[in-house]
Amino acid sequence: MAFRDVLDIEVAAGSGGDGSMSFHRAKYMEKGGPDGGHGGRGGSIILRAIEGVESLERLVGQRKFKAENGRYGEGRLRQGADGQDTYIEVPVGTTAFDRDSGKVIADLVRVGQEKVIAQGGYGGRGNSTFTSSTRQAPRFAELGTPGQKRRVRLELRLIADVGLVGYPNAGKSSLLAALSRANPAIADYPFTTLSPILGVVESEDGEQRFTMADIPGIIEGASEGKGLGLEFLRHISRTRLLVYVLDVTRDPVEELRQLQNELRAYDATLLDSVAAIALNKTELVDTDITAMVEDELATFGLPVLPVSAKEGLGLPELRDALFQLLPDRELWAQTHALEEDVEDVREEPLTLTFREDAPERGAPVPERVWEVHGGGFEARLTRFSRHLEDAAEYLSNLFKRQGLYAALKRAGAREGDTVEIGTFRFEYFNDEE
User: How does it assemble (predicted)?
Assistant: First the structure.
């Protein structure tokens, strides 16, 4: 399976079912009371993190996801069934972004973690809800609301315990193969690793283990998108422990500086991660040179462990050190999960705009029109669009209670002015005396 760590999808939650406009019918009962049931809730789109999947490639065949609509309400107070939720299973470490706003809407760092990324619509209320002392037989019901639609970008950031970071041909793949069960492609040229490779490293007694990721080689300018840099730098942010793999035969001090500069340019907090240095290929130089380089690298304040992945030298000491340095998984997850942007579900404030339209033929004066924006009034009208005439009294009382008429009066509205809410128009009358 090809490795894929970014995928764009479209999701559409289900709409809520409409409420029922129904009256009880029974033998010997000419006029029964209203008994319309409520519509069901629309299904939501939910991300679920699972283990054993290391790529988003399995989702490529389906880029659009739709949840089930809620069912309509029925007579005899029967409520419509809720629509089924749609689950999208993704690897642990997946972050979801709203492609239009760029906001983080989900960050899944634990197996089994779930997050709603598109909310199902609400079911409409049946006409049985709208009875009152003066309204014994309401001939209207409420429509369900639409489900949320979104364009979403999924980004996978591998949840590996230890990440190997280094320039091409520093020996990361060889080190991973020597320490773990992984069998990465190994050759003596840069960019052998085109995808992150995971391996499992066990303690000597076999009672402890951690996952290690071979992050593809960084080149200078990776943080600016050169080479494969940006595609793979994101995976480093998910590792609990970084291991800088340096080639002792090159200029390891300068390489470490450059590596840290690239990490700093991408995400400065990466330099706060627990880290160690694996000084590789020591079989190629004298021990005096290795010791001198160790002393120079010690100025960075990180543990330096000389190793030879090819000859197996220093690997037990490196393995033991990594087990000791590795931060606790649960504590790390609590402090490194991305903060999700909480959606602002508040309604827009009410605003009134006045205009005068040209008088109709034969009319003596222009038409005075008040445009109503915000306050949630258009959404409320829309839910009764099938029964507006029958629901007029209910809506008029509702708007009065919610302060629309008082706001119009304060703004200077006169009897007979036209009130415009979206595509809906009605005549204003002063009911505030």
Answer: Monomer.
